[in-house]
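Writing this down once: the sequence line spells out the residues, with the fold written below as integer tokens. I am pasting one below:
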Amino acid sequence: MNYKTMALTEEQYYLIIKTIKEGFVTATGKHIYPNVRIAICLTLQANLGLRIGDIVSLRLADIVRDGNRFRLEITEQKTNKQRCFTVANEIFTYLQSYALEQSLKANQRLFDISVRAVQKHLQAVCEYLGLSGISTHSFRKFFAISIYNNNNFNVELVRTLLQHSSIAVTQHYLSVQPEIVERALAQHIKLPA
């Protein structure tokens, strides 16, 4: 199967998270109940750019106070690379509130759930919403493209944040959208008088 995971649009991101939080009934009458845990996993993936395997393994203790900021220190499961980066205070507060609501200790996993369970739930939501080409990796791509677009198309910044080994990998990963190419061509017209 030649399946290419698409990056989410901002509208798709918010719609998927809202649907997961609210639950729904499928066309066959099956109830898919609200699932805050999965909604938060995917929200974190969209905001931190981590792979879903690293998200489901997170503990609040992985986020360390460093002066007036927080930083996340993990070893990525796929690459076995150390990763250390700043986490916005709002993200830490969001996770801290979730941990308190769930009565989780700092060293406990925040999400007692498998990657496969998250994938299956997301697949059910996307089928219900009529969305195709979307997987958990779409949330990581959403992060990458958002960072790219909001930071003057800085591929090196995205490469660093995703910990890709080369710019070429990141460029392929971003797969520049056709509308960006069209806009660049339209803005580059330099006809002599």
Summary: The beta strands are 24-25, 31-32, 63-66, 69-75, 82-87. DSSP finds nine helices and five strands in the chain.
